[in-house]
Design goal:
It comes from Anaeromyxobacter dehalogenans (strain 2CP-C). InterPro entries: TPR-like_helical_dom_sf, Znf/thioredoxin_put. Keywords: Membrane, Transmembrane, Transmembrane helix. The chain is mainly alpha-helical and 531 residues long. Among the domains are: 68 residues, no CATH class; 109 residues, Serine Threonine Protein Phosphatase 5, Tetratricopeptide repeat, CATH 1.25.40. Helices cover 58% and strands 3% of the residues. The chain contains 20 helices and 4 strands. It has a two-stranded antiparallel ribbon. It has a two-stranded antiparallel ribbon with strand order 3-4. Helix 7 packs antiparallel against helix 8 and helix 8 packs parallel to helix 10. The longest helix is centred in the first third of the chain and has 61 residues. The radius of gyration is 60 Å and the shape is elongated.
Amino acid sequence: MLIRCERCSTLYELDEALLAPEGSAVQCTRCQHVFTARPPEAARPAASPASAPEPPAAPPPPAPPPSPEPEAAPEPPRAAPRTYAPEPSRAIRSGPAVYKPQPSQAAVTRAPVLRKDTVGTFEARLRWSARRKWLIPLVVAAVAVVAAAGWLLLSRRHAPEAGRLRAEGLALMALDDATSLDQARARFEEALRLAPRDRAPEADLAAAEILRAAELGEGATALQLRAAARAAERDRLRTEQQPGWEAAEQAAGAEADGLAADARAQAERARTLAAGAAEALGRLQGAHAAPAEVARAQALLAAWSGDRAALERAAAEARKLLPGDPWLALAEAALDARAHDRGAQERAAAALSALLAHDPEILRARLLLARTQGALGRRQEAIGTLDGLLAANPRHEGALTLRAKLAAAAAPEPATPSGFLPLPAPGRAGAPGAQAGQGAPAAGNGAPAPRNGVAQRPAGSTPAPAPASAGPTAPRPSAAPAPAPSAPAPAGAAPSASPATAPSAPPAGAPPRPRPRPAPTPEPVEFGGGH
């Protein structure tokens, strides 16, 4: 028979022969609940005679005494009414005596467990274990596929925006000034963040950092030249020890030290940027990512470092993928422009002119061409090249500085020394060059300069005596006309006849003459164009 636990409803299969007619106590093996299990027939209510027996019938009243009549034949005795005893309950079934389990026996304390339930649970566990072995990897694979699909969709959605940012970065990189280069680097970084699968912006970022390093390196060179000039001025003041030289010497020394410190800082920053760009390019080259952009950036790096062999290799590889790229032509022309050979500089000027004819937006080529033209002595051409550069980018610091220097050097000698051309050295008063070539600029009005030591000083140092001396010097040609330049004899006799013409004898009370500045060094032609 099947029995069910009253608490947890667990089914059990039990031999009903083990149960007593009135039921037996059974303990559930799952919840340990004890309940009474009854056989099927005992569970039904017993029959009415068995459950409620009828009471015996009341005896009849006693009979009256018999009349004296002749005795009749005796009647058979009446049977007394029977009292019906309750029928004993029939045995449920024929067989052995009813089994009454004891509390200590296993039949009562541990009811038999349904074999079907035990086997089913074990089989279910086995099925779940087998299902889990392939279900977990399947779920993980599905999650990975969904994540990859989402990432791919997002990257494709940002691809147009990344392309626009990269184009803006390349345009800013062509403007060449420090602010534009920093903005170009920011554009490339944002494009790389939006489309990390596209490695071309990373190579372009390395190229922008190389150009920025070149700009910083040339700025450091300019600062070093200024620091050297101030240090020379400090040494001059210390040697001459003119009145008030201590304060001027201290100011010049402090300025020289500050310029030298700034130059070292810019040079270190340039080296850091170039090293980071080289590392990024090596990583991209090892991953075979964006080969064209990587080769172009490596060509720029080789031009910045001055490695001609590396430049030729990188340019040859880049031209296979980027034919006619203007940055490759710029890198090749930069090495020739940096050479001290005039022939190499001529080739660089020709190559840069051809480059600007096809790609005028590369402003660094304009600046490099202007520097090369200045080094070749073509200052007016260099000024025109810089004017075109400033028309495209008015905030280019390097072009502004270079144009100011070239304009000051190319202008005729003014009344006040420009600082870029050496002052005329004082010569003999009777020399033809002192009369014809140096006297007119010193006087500033076309009249011959007085032949004395004061006349050889720059007009800017003594502006007041110039008009006053014009009157006394006017009658001198009529009294003693100057000999022609072709007559050297009178000119040679002039020093002995007039001792006051010696340049070493300035009049008493006259201010000290400034020492002529040395000839300016030519503008360094570097790959960069910052200052």
